[in-house]
């Protein structure tokens, strides 16, 4: 686990904004996990006996899940270059790719990533919420 540094960080992205991303990421993760809690309930088998027991609440269920992901994407796309780079860097610090003392390097590397793919990249991180929380804690924000 990273050691918390006693340094004041001058972040472009507001820590409360990062906490909003953490909440959104947790909501997305919970929605995915609910779909797979009971695998038998969601399995559909058509080879021997017909066994279709997929429970679905219709478009309302899909719309709420998609709305959360869409909101997440829009929030990320609304960030400026510095904020987006810092959000990625926080995830990397939280994941352990960089130590908090390497913050400037992490931000510089994140800035080199294609800007258009930031939302897709972050949504693809399986423990994004946990890593963002750990990143904020590591830099003392």
Automatic annotation (TrEMBL):
It comes from Mesorhizobium plurifarium. InterPro entries: DUF3775. It comes from the Bacteria. It holds the Pfam family DUF3775. This is DUF3775 domain-containing protein.
